[in-house]
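[Structure tokenization] protein backbone as discrete codes

[Encoding] learned vocabulary of local backbone shapes

[Begin record] amino acids and matching fold tokens:

___
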Amino acid sequence: MKFLLATATAALMALSIGSAYSSELAPLNSDTEKDRIDWSQLEAKFGAFPKLPDGTRAGAVSKTLTNEYWRSLGEGYKSFGDRVGVPVVYQAAQSEGDQLGQLTIAEGLATQGYNVLLVSPQTDSNLQPIMEQAKAANVPVVNVNDAVIPQAEHYVGNVQRDNGVRVAKWFIKNRPDGGKVAIVEGQAGVYAAVQRTDGFKTTITEAGKFEVVASVPGNWDRQTSYDAATNILQQHPDLIGFYANNDGMALGIVEAVKAAGLQDKVAVFGTDGISDAYASIRAGELTGTVDSFPVLTGEVALESALRLVAGQKLPRVVATPQALITKDNADRYSGAGDAVRKALLEDAAAGN
């Protein structure tokens, strides 16, 4: 009962804060917001990294550290912070479903005198209550991948819908005869999950030869996704492929496909580009992933946040890169940080 009351209280706070902001700022759709810049253009548009006030510190809160993606994002924060002499405190909830725990952490950081806060919310609403608190303290807040706070003034992350679009285009090109496909979604209602799912479903359906026979929640969980995939394969043994909203779920699906003896017939794609996904791709198990380069995203997010601290007026969205990874190109995107950055700058210059 206490949990339900706390959840209801948090929801009411989020609604009231959203109302307070609504007259000032249009709700953010990070995929379609026109006030945006590509990460590769930051220095060209805003100059070399600026001088910061003495003693600048950054606080960051993420979904959870049980998922490699969010650990890698933190590595990016630390890497850029070390480079420019800014300490970063990085904390996270115990699990991807601990919304109140994450809010408590964020509220704590908002009172500790940081010059900027970077937040990766578990849902589109659970961290809204800190927005007014930070605004009153004149502390900028940067929403970093992947749930989107509607009233966020600044967002850094990739185009979520494009994750699903890229995978759908692979199926259209590599499975020209079409067939049955299935989707295992992330947490219901979360912006990234909704956009990734819609990008895949819309693109592959419009191709005309494919049927999406199932689209079920996996809640970002490997075991839940294994169970879901097992059920789908029992109902549709002629399935040709899965798209999962993250790599942990995709790796669970791979195990279900192997258990069904269908690894030579069913393609499986994930999203995020974690190291286990790359290893599975090289082993010929996972077909591919859409890497959104979390270390680089963390670096770009902190750079953007600190440019705000220095008084620069950045666009509302700073878009970070992504690439469809298969066995054919895995080596190009899995080297040392500078090599990956070079490859992604080449992609940006080529319009990829």
Residues 191 and 257 are 28 Å apart (CA to CA).
